[in-house]
């Protein structure tokens, strides 16, 4: 068993082989856009980006969500785990016509910004890569960089997702992944459902909303938990 080494994350294995496409993702998460820009989805983030905010995405990957923040005139920041992915993010945004340099080297446990710095923090499918009971430390770090009344937008895989079904539970938050690819035999962290996720988040955030998101195609069945939290 092992933690997933950040050096294993490369453009080749995390983009080309998975998406089978020439370019990394170009468009932002539809759920993220709806929740942060509309009044119809969340009481906590009601039209959150109506005014300019300082927003950071942990694991900004190809910059497709950063693109949304730039287009809505937000003060956008990003964090990635190695320089290859930082370079990929910058080049992909440049391909799309955006110049973006506010991206730093860091991870879930080490966000390279001072406390009470951001109005919002976005984490989409990064939390489950923190293993060995690091989840409490990660959530505390997320809270640290957020201002009072700041918003955390969080997505993570649900227990009925095919990715979780390829993993074996060892203990609380610790699952041994048995699927193919560079994640094989890595320790990942999953929640036992929406109730479990909400209970854990409420230890760090004063208000929490939980949603579910499913994506079903001919080839895949994906299931996610979405949380909106207020400091």
Specify the overall morphology: globular
Main beta sheet: 7 strands, mixed
Q: Quickly give the structural class.
A: alpha/beta
Taking pLDDT < 50 over at least 5 consecutive residues as the criterion, the unreliable ranges are: none
SSE series? HHEHEHEEHEHEEEHEE
Write the layout of secondary structure elements.
Elements (H helix, E strand, L loop, with lengths): L10 H9 L10 H8 L16 E5 L5 H8 L3 E6 L2 H13 L7 E3 L12 E7 L10 H10 L1 E12 L4 H4 L1 E5 L2 E4 L9 E2 L5 H8 L5 E10 L4 E10 L1
Parallel strand pairs: 1-2, 1-4, 2-3, 4-5
Antiparallel strand pairs: 5-10, 6-7, 7-8, 9-10
How would you summarize this macromolecular structure in one to three sentences?
The chain has 231 residues and is of the alpha/beta class. It contains seven helices and ten strands.
């Amino acid at each position: 068993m092992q933690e997933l080494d950040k050096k294993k994350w490369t453009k080749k294995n995390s983009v080309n082989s998975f998406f089978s496409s020439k370019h990394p993702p170009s468009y932002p998460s539809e759920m993220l856009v709806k929740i942060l820009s509309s009044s119809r989805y969340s009481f906590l983030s009601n039209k959150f980006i109506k005014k300019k905010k300082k927003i950071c995405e942990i694991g900004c990957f190809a910059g497709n969500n950063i693109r949304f923040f730039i287009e809505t005139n937000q003060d956008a920041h990003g964090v990635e785990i190695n320089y290859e992915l930082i370079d990929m993010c910058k080049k992909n945004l440049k391909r799309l016509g955006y110049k973006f340099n506010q991206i730093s080297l860091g991870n879930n446990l080490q966000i390279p910004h001072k406390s009470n710095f951001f109005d919002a923090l976005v984490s989409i499918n990064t939390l489950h890569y923190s293993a060995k009971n690091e989840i409490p430390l990660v959530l505390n770090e997320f809270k640290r960089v957020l201002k009072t009344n700041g918003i955390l937008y969080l997505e993570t895989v649900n227990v009925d997702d095919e990715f979780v079904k390829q993993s074996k539970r060892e203990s609380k938050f610790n699952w041994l992944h048995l699927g193919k690819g560079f994640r094989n035999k890595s320790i990942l962290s999953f929640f036992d459902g929406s109730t479990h996720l909400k209970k854990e988040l409420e230890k760090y955030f004063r208000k929490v909303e939980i949603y579910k998101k499913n994506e079903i195609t001919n080839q895949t069945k994906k299931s996610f938990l979405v949380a909106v939290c207020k400091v």
